[in-house]
Records
---
Amino acid sequence: MPPVTRWYIRTSLVFLVLSLALGALLAARTPLNLPAATGVLTPIYFHLLFVGFVAQLIFGVVFWLFPKHTKENPRGSERLAWIAYWLLNAGLVLRLIAEPANDVSRRPFWGWLLVVSAAAQLAAGILFAANTWPRVKER
Amino acid sequence: MPRLSVVFIRTSLLHLVLGFTLGALILVQKGVGVFPSAWRLLPAHIEVLFFGWTVQLIMGTAYWILPRFPTHPVRGNEAPVRLAYTLLNAGVLAAALGPFLTPSPWTLLAGRLAEVLAIIAFVSNAWPRVKPFGR
């Protein structure tokens, strides 16, 4: 298993734990009378689960197991895979911080951080697709 | 990788980029409020990423990698898998685009029914391939 895949998979497992813990916190709002403001964490919960865990696990496993690109360069660009890894996770962590802060404070700084987060995650998706595309081929 | 898997997986990559783009627009709207109508994209964002990207990638990979039969056709009958591809993508398009094209709720229903039929067609091929290798 290549190093970048190990990072993708281990990070995806961390996000799985974080997202399920957040899901438990959201489920505790009513029985524990938690402040209604904790509801702003709902979109974070879904995105940690579906982007941080599911998509990230797929990105890592696809880079590892899909058909070889060429003999010299079997997995396509490892550099692109690393860039996509950092963009995806930087984007997610920024969102984790900026989305609740933006909902609560409405200062423009947090809103612009969300724009950076959106751009980083979109760029990660495009880089992953571009790096994977030539490996999806008939044998 | 068989041609049908190539088609499924490449289409799923296109859905990934489309779904991430829709999500980015919604997040930008949430941050700086420059696309007020971006919230209307939320159902399409979910449909495209869940069915168009994730489910389609799984279907393409499963068709490629599940155990094969010892005799031809080694991956079973292709016809229901081709049908599944067409129905799934028609269903995603109808469910995602329907609300923009018409106020009628029938497009969403038609899309979801196409998705159900796609899964049934796909399962009819995959089910007998869930078996020990070499049998």
---
Amino acid sequence: MTLILNGLPPLHWALAGLGIAGVTLALLLIGSRRLGISTGFEDVCSLVLPAPYFRRPAVVSGRPWRLPLLCGLVLGGFLSAVLGGGWKPTWALGMFDTAIGLGPGGKLAWMFVAGLFIGFGTRLAGGCTSGHGIFGLANLERPSLITTLTFMAAGIVTTQVVYRVLFPLAGL
Amino acid sequence: MTAVYVVLGTIFGFILSRSGAADYDFIQGMFLFTNLQLYGIMGVAVLVGAPGIWLIKQRGRTLAGRKIDIELKPLHRGNISGGVLFGIGWSLAGMCPGPILVNIGEGKIYALAALAGALAGAGVFGTIYQRLQKPFALPALKVGTGEG
């Protein structure tokens, strides 16, 4: 199986896992920071929204390190494309295109709704794949085990329903 | 220090991009059990991260000598209800929060809509936090649901 990005072959899973562990440990050893990306959404919200939730010290004090980290993620994706066959804007969405073939407008609507679930859900759960699934599990935190098992199960059920029921029905 | 965090984010983003963690097909393959790449990645990251975190906490200091001080995530009902909502979103988008940003960098246009949705979702959550506190047994406003 190859990546949607320029049909590149993926890194070996063990190497990728080691690299992610390395970044996690570097954040802790250099900055006493726990890896976590979804709180970054709150940091961005806190730049414009006045609600008391976004004025919390935990959010405001995290901005000087988390916002640069988030910018780095965008840059990392960009470099990956540039160094791996070239960067160009694309709508390609792999097996989604094969199964349902929505146009640009449909994809934007689909992704916006999915994003709402991601933004609201991760903040209600107190973290995402990185904060709960990587750091929280590695730090043996019980809330992270509960949350990770829950979002993995919900993802499995959703994809099974979408690809084994919903899309086949839509294609009839 | 800002540059250090940009560099670490860039390395993290590059790995997510090239490993399949930011790839719609690999995410669906994980949830369909047709491709186990991402289980391997998460497993190695956790198994290597766990002793590493333990050792750094034993040391107790950052490289610059500052005290290591991280907040543990609180346990509350939002762990499960939020986990369900996030799992649905992860499956639909084929991206979790980090990979949304990585995909934007790669040039995948639809990822911008996922980011807009995620920011709107987080914005609504924070705005109505006090109303969610009781039904979801969420921690005090000062604590929040958990950083990360």
---
Amino acid sequence: MMTCDLSRLTLMQMRELIDAGEVSREELVRAALSAVAEGDEVLGAFLEVDEEGALAAARAADNTGGQTGGVLDGIPYAAKANICSRRMTTNCASYMLADYRSPFDAKVVASTGSAGGILLGKTNMDEFAMGSSTENSAFHKTRNPWDLDRVPGGSSGGSAASVAANYVPAALGSDTGGSIRQPASFCGVVGMKPTYGSVSRYGLIAFASSLDQIGPLTRTVHDCAAVLDALVLRDKRDSTSISHPDSGRFSESVAASGEDLRGWRVGLPREYLGDGIDPRIREVVRGAADGFTGLGAEVRECSLPHTDYALPAYYIIASAEASSNLARFDGVRYGMRTEGESVLDLYLNSRGEGFGPEVKRRVMLGTFALSAGYYDAYYLKAARTRRMIVRELEQAFSDFDLLLTPTTPMPAFGIGERVEDPLAMYMADICTIPANMAGIPAISIPGGRVDGLPVGIQLMAPRFADERLLRAAAVYERVTGDRGANPLCPGDVPTEGVCDR
Amino acid sequence: MDHVKQQAAYVARLAHLRLSGAELKTMARDMESILDYIGRLEELELDEVQPLFNPAAADDNVWREDETGTDDISDEFLRGAPDVRDRYLMVPQVVASDEVEGEDDDM
Amino acid sequence: MTFDDPTPLIGLEIHVALATDSKMFCPCETEFVREPNTQVCPVCLGLPGALPVLNRRAVELGVLCALALDAEVYPEMQFERKNYHYPDLPKGYQISQLAAPMAENGIMSFTDDDGGEKEARIRRVHLEEDAGKSIHLPGEGTLLDFNRCGVALAEVVTEPDLHSPADVRCFLEQLRELLRHTGASEVRMEEGELRCDVNVNLVHNGEGTPGRTEISEVKNLSSFRGVERALQYEVERHRQALRRGDPLTHETRHWDEEREVTFSARSKEESHDYRYFPDPDLHPVRIPRAMIDDLQERMGELPRARRRRLSREYDLSSYDADVLVGGGLADFFEEVVAEGSNAKAAANWVMGELSAHLNAEDIGIDELPVQPGQLAQLLDMVDSGEISGKIAKEVWGAVVQQGCDPRAIVEERGLSQISDDAQLESLAREVVEEHEDVVRDYRSGKEKALGFLVGQIMQKTQGKANPQMANEKLREIISREGCE
């Protein structure tokens, strides 16, 4: 069962081998494919794997001879099933789009492709990105590589698992309320949500337009920076896309990140360390705070009083935008159609059968929040609350360079444990939601263990300070050494001889 | 509970979601508890605060020049569509008494 | 306002297709095409993952509309989502505007059928995207074509300031002219570039028992004739209802062109809960003062204002001003006058000879190979007596063919009017000698006989003789000789 070979290498290690001509892209893809073939029937990270396409792309790149210099040259990667690709289906883990083939590639697929990345397959997720455990997938569950009876987190559970299980060194996820960071925390990998607007949403099947961002899941911070170099660019097809001042320089920045964080001011917001957080996780975070102090940073407690209101406001806004974004799924032009005698029947049948219960709940909540008589009390109120949260964070960032918090209030919970209780499920996002509300960059890196399960710590920085975040995370990672060791090969760590950065 | 169920049924109609009797019951219950939790926003007094609809603000207007030119995906689109007649998409009759809203044009 | 008699209150919601090359939020072509579902892309099809990007020219043309309607253009506007389900609306919402529209509070003056001046207030002008086209096949289903989906529209909403179907027709016709003049839209009716919803009810609140009917809305009328007829029908329906004491219900109706009736579309009061909210995919759009000022300048003088000014400044009849402005000839006319011509003469020539030539050749004023200065020169030569009116027409014929100066033609062909006293005298003598009998007729009182003699002089000179002078000379000679 063990495939402790090429597929276990980090992205940067693979790049080195490709650059040195010591391994071909085809070999890397084959290693990835065989890792998937061996383990994914149990794990369920992928919804679809395109063996033929991936090998063809690898061979074609190999045959052009020489190195392209693309930052992801030869790297096999996975993409969440809500990211449009011309190869394979893009089904958002929903019956509604079960066989849907997008006639265009998402901008991120095009840009990772241009950077040399090779798309291996589409990963499992909560349906339409709504959920925190990947249990809401219409097709199958994904298991946590660290404990197969536990969830990998969600909604980018498949992407997190595919990286944690060493199928691919990098996967793309999407994060609306924590959907990259929370599964990263549960699976012991690195997951980052970049500054809102820095990665194009063109081709991301929208859940909540003002909150969604695509980001990387990887095993190391340097790998994460490398992927970001391919993702962060201004896209004229996305009106919310902005030019990032550090575009293309994240990897370089991490490589030069040094050994300490002297002079850095790190804030510890007390509202993130309250009773709603598992005490053992609070311990991990306090331990991390000590770690930062040890690195020369000044760590102080602070307060963000509106934090408690972020979750309810988020659910209103996200559901409202979702109810509108999902209105297009009506059986008329694509996707599932369940026939009816009239158009009304067509809508009701298709949407009734195509959407799962969580999706329906959010569409209902969102429709309600926007409806006449309730708009002011719900949607507008939530938008005002959002402004308060942004102000508070801006204020905090005038005193601190970074904020340190837990990523999740609990370690990975058991499969089936929360799926019947929507509110309990929503609570899994309390630490991650504020960053989406404010559009600020946030990263989860492995922070420690609770009952043998990985838990992440989260760092947040102001808008456009993605590079700062990566630098701090890289230093912390380098010094603490917890790189989320391969759960399938306990005790195995990537070997010394292969450029240990 | 009945009032909540009624409200849920109305919202389901607006959202064009068909819910079975059992689904409606569960949905009404879930809605009630979710809205109850969300209701804590009432604790905040925010009338003077400007709402925020998107965290990114553009300094300059984001727009494009009036130029034509798209990748032609029309054939691929039609191939993937459920019911096509002579390049038109086909849906069942829009019945006048439908609750389906919208503008109708007979041209 | 007080209405002593039951008076129709009519408000309009007009959708105008703006004259952009590409659609509102995507680079698909807008030019009308026969084959369905060919001018489409992920954005206007509402495919999952597609996003809108605003067409700047649509904003400019929208602002032009607003300025033409004297509306206040706001410095910032926001797009919102209008959520509803309909097969021709791919996203399940239409990108439109509500709380923060492009412009508000305008006014449009128009002339009614009797020449009276009326006004209708414009409540708002905003931007939105068009939906696709539905073709209903009764008993079978509905066909959908998304070529039109996403085309940039300006929506113009009036207050209920129109009080008769005829007035509505006049208003719309003049609105069309206005929009064409500004270039905001070509308003090609046959391509559905102007569609209108009307709101109508009857109010009577003056002396006697007040009464009113509920507003009925007739949707999607796309010809002026259709609008007028539908309104005639509706107004009558409301009148009868009012007489019966039936207030009717607030409802939406459709116009059946063939049977010439309106019929109820939705009798339920199920109000449209469109759940508007600001579109999170589109940031607020700032309309800079500089853009507004620049557009205002480029728009120039509007047709109504120009008619009035021409009448006033050049002392032309309103009919003449109408013909010049309506025929697109006003620019040319004013330039001719600027070159020194008499306004009335210039107006006559432009409306007469010039216009006739344009029609005969089926060309526009831009394709006329004559410069205003050249026409001015021609008119000047007539005015000074250098050539006769008749010769001028001949010269004009040559000028439009060859595009050269009238003076050159006159010289080349020796068409100068003969005004030389001695020459005319000798010609007059000749004619008098040749036609003694006619001279006798003239002497015996037949004035017309002189005309014949003048004609003879004209013949001898191939029309070049100055007819007034010829006339005078003949009289002189005849009276002189009479005294011998």
